[in-house]
């Protein structure tokens, strides 16, 4: 049997619960729902470092954050990894292509792909000249922008709508024809790869979308789907400082905390949901093209997001925090041709993470898995096979005074804020929205102690000095990157 083609579809900043297959009260995702019913959905999937750069490091290296070294968000740190997913597949005879967002440095670093067609979205460090070894201007590194200016016949720019790339609290419709939207462009370029690929080789295509990451700019028809609906009220935990949120007020559209006027929040959520349904339709377009090219049944498809979006949960926005809306992600594995014997419609109750993507695709390809890979293939659980799996996941994010660590098995979650020493503990089985912090509950003291000890083991020996004499130490300076990759 010939090796399968591999299609990795990633979206940016999509919450785990924004699938109608999971019972979301308003979001419509018919194509992803169909993939869920025909494939395998992993309901306990997390991003261990929930922001763009470290999430992609996990995908491309199969390593934990301790090994790939990116434990927060820091641009302009060169990527120098010996074993990356595309390179291992190329050595195994695959034709490899990435379309869309890479978010590596330098921006045109191939990361062992044969070719990349790039759109990273708005990145502050390449919007003006910087004195760095790879001084990059967006005109040099963004293929979508050059295409857009040819197609639109104008000096179109990413800032034309007046929306910041991190404005998670402001939404409005896309102003140009839908075919020019970056989501459509990503699919158009992915389909073009199907046309020009080497037909004598299996292919690995990574279709990497920038949306639903802000700016929240769905085409008008998709904004209209949600703008007049009564949207569900975001959860607000009993532990949230509501007075501070009222003072913050969300005055800055890029704010990460604050209470917004309901009208503004509803418009932002309508735009966010509209982007997700738009993505779903465009993913359907890509799947249709796979069928038209006669390769759908020979292709293993994995869909996921790099991290979530709080979108008002606990009066917070964007990502980087340890709560479910930020750290938990959708992850679907679908084998249209049935060659891997996946248990269609199943939902394995095992905690999984982005580092598991590389070994999954390498196993499917029959390629060797490098010793540096710390993830585990998802094919066994997707077939319903019993076997040793990780019992919990350690996640973290350097984030100033809200720098945090969390450990979870998808049923319980312990959180430690490394600067203040504050602890939180949630029983996700009865409180999936994290409404009640039980860290101070005497009846949960043993569970809190168990999870705290697990975090101590994870952080033992870390260069930041988070652990001394077997205890967590608050106030140590967080670092976005560990020294071995700088």
Topology of this protein?
Elements (H helix, E strand, L loop, with lengths): L4 E8 L17 H9 L1 E2 L3 E2 L5 H10 L3 H4 L16 H7 L3 E6 L14 E4 L19 H4 L1 H10 L29 H15 L6 E10 L7 H7 L15 H7 L13 H31 L6 E7 L18 H4 L3 E4 L17 E2 L3 H9 L13 H4 L10 E5 L6 E5 L3 E6 L5 E5 L17 H15 L7 E2 L2 E2 L14
Parallel strand pairs: 1-6, 1-7, 3-9, 4-5, 4-6
Antiparallel strand pairs: 2-8, 7-8, 10-11, 11-12, 12-13, 14-15
Helix pairs in contact: 7-10, 8-10
Features:
486 residues, alpha/beta, single chain, Alkaline Phosphatase, subunit A, Arylsulfatase, C-terminal domain, four-stranded antiparallel sheet, 15 strands, 14 helices
CATH-level-4 superfamily name of the largest domain: Alkaline Phosphatase, subunit A
Number of strands: 15
Radius of gyration based on Cα positions: 21 Å
What is the CA–CA distance across the termini? 43 Å
How many helices? The count is: 14
Could you tell me the strand content as a percent range?
Answer: 5-15%
Largest sheet: 7 strands, mixed
The main sheet orders its strands as 2-8-7-1-6-4-5
Basic shape: globular
Number of domains: 2
Structural class, by secondary structure, is alpha/beta
Mean pLDDT: 95
Q: What would CATH call the architecture of the largest domain?
A: 3-Layer(aba) Sandwich
Helix content: 25-40%
Uncertain runs are none
The level 1 CATH classification of the largest domain is: Alpha Beta
Do you know the CATH topology of the largest domain?
Answer: Alkaline Phosphatase, subunit A
H-E order: EHEEHHHEEHHHEHHHEHEEHHEEEEHEE
């Amino acid at each position: 049997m010939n090796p399968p083609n591999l299609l990795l579809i990633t979206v940016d900043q999509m919450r785990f619960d924004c699938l109608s297959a999971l019972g979301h009260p308003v979001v419509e995702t018919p194509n992803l729902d169909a993939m869920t019913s025909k494939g395998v959905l992993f309901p306990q999937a997390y991003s261990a470092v929930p922001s763009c750069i470290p999430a992609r490091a996990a995908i491309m290296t199969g390593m934990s954050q301790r090994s790939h070294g990116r434990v927060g968000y820091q641009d302009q740190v060169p990527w120098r990894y010996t074993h990356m997913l595309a390179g291992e597949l190329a050595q195994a005879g695959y034709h490899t292509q990435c379309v869309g967002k890479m978010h590596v440095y330098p921006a045109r670093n191939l990361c062992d792909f044969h070719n990349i067609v790039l759109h990273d979205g708005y990145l502050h460090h390449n919007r003006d000249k910087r004195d760095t070894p790879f001084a990059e201007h967006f005109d040099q590194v963004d293929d979508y922008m050059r295409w857009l200016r040819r197609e639109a016949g104008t000096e179109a720019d990413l800032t034309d709508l007046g929306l910041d790339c991190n404005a998670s609290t402001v939404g409005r419709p896309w102003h140009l024809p839908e075919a020019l939207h970056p989501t459509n462009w990503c699919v158009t370029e992915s389909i073009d790869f199907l046309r020009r690929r080497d037909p004598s080789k299996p292919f690995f295509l990574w279709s990497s979308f920038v949306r639903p990451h802000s700016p929240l700019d769905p085409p008008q028809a998709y904004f209209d789907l949600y703008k007049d609906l009564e949207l569900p009220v975001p959860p607000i935990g009993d532990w949230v400082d509501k007075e501070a949120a009222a003072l913050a007020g969300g005055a800055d559209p890029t704010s990460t905390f604050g209470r917004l006027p309901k009208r503004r929040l509803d418009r932002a959520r309508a735009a966010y949901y509209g982007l997700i349904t738009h993505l779903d339709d465009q993913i359907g377009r890509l799947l249709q093209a796979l069928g038209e090219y006669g390769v759908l049944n020979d292709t293993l498809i994995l869909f996921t997001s790099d991290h979530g979006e709080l979108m008002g949960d606990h009066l917070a926005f964007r990502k980087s925090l340890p709560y479910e809306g930020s750290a938990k992600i959708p992850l679907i594995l679908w084998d249209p041709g049935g060659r891997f014997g996946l248990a269609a419609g199943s939902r394995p109750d095992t905690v999984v993470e982005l580092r598991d993507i590389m070994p999954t695709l390498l196993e499917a390809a029959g390629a060797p898995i490098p010793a540096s890979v710390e993830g585990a293939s998802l094919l066994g659980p997707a077939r319903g096979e019993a076997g040793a799996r990780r019992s919990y996941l350690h996640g973290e994010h350097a984030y100033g005074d809200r720098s945090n660590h969390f450990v979870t098995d998808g049923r319980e979650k312990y959180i430690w804020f490394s600067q203040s020493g504050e602890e939180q503990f949630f029983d996700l089985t009865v409180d999936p929205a994290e409404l009640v912090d039980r860290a101070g509950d005497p009846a949960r003291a043993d569970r809190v102690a168990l999870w705290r000890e697990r975090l101590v083991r994870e952080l033992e020996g870390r260069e930041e000095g988070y652990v001394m004499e077997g205890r967590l130490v608050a106030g140590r300076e967080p670092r976005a990157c560990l020294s071995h990759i700088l």
